[in-house]
Amino acid sequence: MPTFTSYDGTELAYHLIGDGDPVVCLPGGPMQASVYLGDLGGLPRQLVMLDLRGTGDSAVPADTMSYECQRQVADVEALREHLGLDQLDLLAHSAGTNLAALYLTEHPGRVRRYAAISPSAFAVGLTITAEQRLATARQRADEPWFAEAYAALEQITGGTFTDELWQRIRPFSHGRWDAAAQALDAATPAQQNAEAAAIYASALTPDETRQALAAFANPVLVLSGQTDVGTPPAVASAYAELFPHATLTVQPASGHFPWLDDAVAFRAAVTDFFSR
Q1: Handedness of CA 105, 106, 108, 114 (dihedral sign)
Q2: Where would a tag sit more exposed on the chain, N or C end, judged by fewer CB atoms within 10 A?
Q3: Phi, psi values for residue 191, rounded to 5°
């Protein structure tokens, strides 16, 4: 397991999967160890999976406020320097796209191509309405678990939040609520740093970030799932519109983890994007 030392002396770990030209991968969660990404559907590249500070095999920092997303930009830059890369092919999933967006803001010349998978709205200030989430969920009305999950989602979108309700809506995150999806969900609590997650998005500046992304000149791929209540298709489309040169791919029958729901389609789209 390779490691490097970041700007404040914190030792961070990353994992190398596969061969070929490197793609630096930023996990979501927020603040979840990168292991849940697996091999991203078998992408034919060398995946550089960063464990964010305080997660996975990376050390806990002395200053816990360094969990703030904008301060972790320096970790990504330290990784780039450690790898000896002039430019990155960058892929981020879910909450990891907040960190990626801030990295693009501060270091636009260091990113050759950026793939945003099931992107988060926080860093860029996009609004996700209750009806967008509910309408996306209603696509699953034929599922045996739908009635219970949808009732829980209605409560959550109405402002009621409990651990039980969050657990009941988990099937909506996946194109198939099968053994693989359930195993991924069951592993999440042990992989996530809850203290770090609470700090991660505490000091974002969406207006400034949107302005910076509008000037990012290199290609962007936004890929989301058709049935993802976390990033409804309309929100993924709005995210893509923030960039001057973005391509939107909405993967059918897929949720928040599209490489798990349809590895073949995911691998084809992402491989094509990074190969251009």
Answers
A1: negative
A2: C
A3: -95, -10
Contact at 8 Å (CB) between 71 and 98? Answer: no
pTM over the 0.90 mark = yes
Whole-angstrom distance, CA of residue 143 vs CA of residue 122:
30
Which domains, ranges and CATH numbers included, belong to the chain?
A: 3-128+192-275 (3.40.50.1820)
DSSP tag of 45: S
Question: Which residue, 75, 87, 78, is CA-closest to 114?
Answer: 87
CA distance 69 to 236: 21
Q: Largest Cα–Cα distance in the chain?
A: 52
Which residues partner with 15 through β-bridges? 49
Backbone torsions φ then ψ of 84, nearest 5 degrees: 70, 30
* Beta bridge mates, 92: 26, 116
Report residue 161 as tokens: 């939040």
The Cα–Cα gap between 65 and 62 comes to 9
CB 149 within 8 A of CB 168: yes
Candidates 45, 46, 53, 43; CA nearest to 76 is 53
- C-alpha to C-alpha distance for 260 and 184, rounded to whole angstroms: 10
Other CB atoms closer than 10 Å to residue 44's CB: what's the count? Answer: 14
DSSP string spanning 140-191? Answer: GTTSTTHHHHHHHHHHHHTT---HHHHHHTGGGGSSS-SHHHHHHHHHHHHH
pLDDT in tens, 205-216: 999 999 999 999
- What does the pLDDT look like over 227-263, one tens digit per residue? 999 999 999 999 999 999 999 999 999 999 999 999 9
**Can you read off the two tokens belonging to residue 119?**
């992107």
